[in-house]
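Sample intake — Polyphosphate:AMP phosphotransferase
Collected from: Roseibium denhamense
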Amino acid sequence: MFESARLPQKMDKKTFKKLEPELREALLEAQLPVVEKKDFSTLILVDGLDGAGKGEAVARLYGWMDARHLVCNAYGEKLDEAKLRPPLWRYWRDLPAKGETAIVFGSWYQGILRDKIYNKIDDDAFEKALMRIRRFEEMLSNEGVLILKFWFVLPKDVQEERLKKIQKKNAARHVLADWAALKHHKQASQVGEKIILETSKGFAPWFVIPSQDPEYRDAALAQTVARAMKLRLEDGEVREVAAPPVIGGLQRETAVDAIDLSASLDKAPYEKKREKYQKILSDLSDRKDMSKTGVILVFQGNDAAGKGGAIRRVIRPLDPRIYKVHPISAPTDEEKARPYLWRFWRRVPRKGHFAIFDRSWYERVLVERVEGFASHGDWLRAYNEINEFEQELTDFGFIVCKFWLAISEEEQLRRFKAREETAYKQHKITDEDWRNRLKWDQYAIAAGDMIDRTSTHYAPWTLVSSENKRHARIEVLKTICDRLEEVV
């Protein structure tokens, strides 16, 4: 997860200075009607990695909103009063009244985050703590509390650079704790991913914000808070909220946008590598330990990105008896009459076999989202449902390999025209393809959100530049071989 949040999202100071009055106005336009109507209260949690600027962001947000109806509740180590009571007592004690807003700094997540990082609790205790938090947040939501949770992320090299600057200023009281946080950066990121996967619900969503650039970070925080409060005012009920695609007039860059499309491979080295990896794949599929696992390959990407060609190179070295290719199109009436994952559960392979999906359950958060076939709440909820589905598969011993094949808008147009002009390829191009092309930007945003929300350590996305088909096919083959070699 967090792929887009690791990108160097930036906003120059001039743009931010111009935007700042608009952000403050938007926050007040959302906050003051809440104060007047008193229909709900708001909790804003600011969490994430140490050194990501949580304190700075809270201070700025506090300055932009009406402080008369805002409180900042900061929690550190438990005092004796809290130690004598259940873990959630102090948070219950400080809940804001309807119409009021509380910024929670050092929330109910911080203790279990640190305990897990430093191995003070085992997996069972960790899961129980998350379950207790989910129940707590759902109860608050049912009682009219708007819960907005922000997780700040920061690349390790940027975190280290910030610590060096702190040392130069002789801010010694911060250094020891933050250097310890740097040492455990990887563990903190992994535990953070687990927390977000388990506790990002429609009634209490997580928003992951990149924190390399303070201006972008704070603009994203303010704009998301204002938007969520405004939506709640308009609807009068709990609804799932997605992060805004545009922050302060700047398009939010996603992991898809960052794919280097210049990668290419000439024919001679391509054929040599193709033979190499196809042989490896064939050998791996014949190993005895293959019977202990199943392989699920998911191919998504831009229309005409070469999914079919990549799949053909994968199945060529495999025994036809151990794989099945599933081309996924619009659901049938039979499938529509059941939960959307039903048709994919039916296609789960047995151990020792491959299931290859040319498009998949991810259409829920792509086509169905963009074209309006799924409601706003349905496609937002699907991220967690998909993650849980894939975790169930991997917990059972399956390997889940997911590929996003990317091409440029110009290359897609060239391939569309070539298909129209080639008799045996004309069946590949439809009116729907041309209609989808008109929504290129919407699909790009949806794909970026999909990758951010569903690229997990157990089922990661592999982002493949497919501008050059030979390069893409080798990347796919190599990735599958690498994943199989870890298991068989």
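Post-analysis note: The CA atoms of residues 304 and 414 lie 10 Å apart.
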